[in-house]
Amino acid sequence: MTARAASRPVGTVTRGTTNPNRLRRMDRWIAATHGAELRGSADPVAVDLGYGAAPWTAVELLARLRTVAPRTRVVGVEIDPARVAAARPYEREGLSFRHGGFEVPVEGGPTLIRAANVLRQYDEEQVAAVWQRLCARLAPAGPGSSGGLLVEGTCDEIGRRHVWVALGPEGPRTVTFATRLGSLDRPSDLAERLPKALIHRNVPGEPVHTFLRDFDHAWAAAAPYASYGARQRWIRTVRDLAADWPVTDAISRWRQGEVTVSWQALAPGV
């Protein structure tokens, strides 16, 4: 056991709620946007941090990432030792489970850390320190590499609605909103799934509140496109939204019911 693994885990036990296929939207996005970084890494390690009471999300992450980066290894990390013991029978080539927390008990710098529905129980004031700790554990940037990626966010119980922040070694980069379009009444429905850093900032005067207001207005203006289906309405909505907000992705992602915006545009005010 390494010295890092032997240290006392940092963090607290979560509720552990999990379901198969819950994180498919996040996984799809990671594979599409971070696949090249995983392929280019000499040792592509992805950490499923706080996978919960059952190991389904770690098992699925391995399968999804290996479609774009076949050498990827996944390490599931849980602070509850009983959950680690329960997950051990699912270990296989490329998949292992370890006891730990925000210290991330793996050797070297991971190419990916995914922390889904982990910070929900923490206070907003604790988020920055957790982000800083996790970003410091990522593989550093270098020639031809933007470094490892931390993806931290929240979704509903069956993964229909999800919002996450992507961070590199330097800090937060983007915010992604993802949804099953057929279940969406208006974009601001996603507000209940904002990550901890933003959810309490959805009030007048804060950038994320203004963004969601403009998103709803663009959705309403795109109502005529609903006759062509929810996907076409979403695409038109995001096109209009991009006139005033720094949307960083393209139509290939919008078709998936996603939109990604620069973190700086939505970052909480002082």
From TrEMBL:
GO biological process assignments: methylation
SUPFAM superfamilies assigned to the protein according to its UniProt record, in alphabetical order: S-adenosyl-L-methionine-dependent methyltransferases
Keyword presence, Zinc: no
Cross-referenced InterPro entries: SAM-dependent_MTases_sf (IPR029063)
Listed GO MF terms: methyltransferase activity
Keywords for the protein's UniProt record, in alphabetical order: Methyltransferase, Transferase
Region (Disordered): 1-20
Domain of life: Bacteria
Protein name: Class I SAM-dependent methyltransferase
The species this protein was found in: Streptomyces kaempferi
